[in-house]
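ESCALATION

Customer reports they have been waiting on this structure for their group meeting. Please prioritize. Original submission:
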Amino acid sequence: MERNMEYRQQLVREYKQMVLPLLDYLPWFAKNAGQSGSTSYRGDSLSEGSMSFSFPVYDATLMSFIKEASKSALMEKNYSYTYTRNHIKTHDDERRLIQAAELKDWDILRGILSKYVLGGRTKAVLWSEAVQENIFVMVLEKMRKIIEFWDKPLDVDTR
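Update from on-call: job pushed to the front of the queue and completed.
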């Protein structure tokens, strides 16, 4: 029994170290909930025969978060297995699992976060989608709540 308690405390300490740097971005995600997190740059053709183009320009804060999250231990390269194992197909499935997550479900939260952070490298629309669908906010908030439940309140401004 005592050993289980020590193990759980060690896990919570490790999780806390992983997620603390990312919690600094919560206020930005909360403020931009439902928005895209990017704008579209449209280049008009310079000459008559050239093509016009358009590409997304992501918010600097979002890109800082992506960079920070990408190098964190929270990233799960095999996040697709999380989706397969848990039958996650829609944003509603993701939200349902995030809301119900407990300490034992930490890997599910990591998998969902990883899909949007790592998957966005090849399909950048995922970054905007995670901001619009509030996935980043929900995952970070749930991780914070799990840590606070098993440890103590974190000194993080989430306004």
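Sent to customer with the following note: The mean pLDDT is 87.
Escalation resolved.
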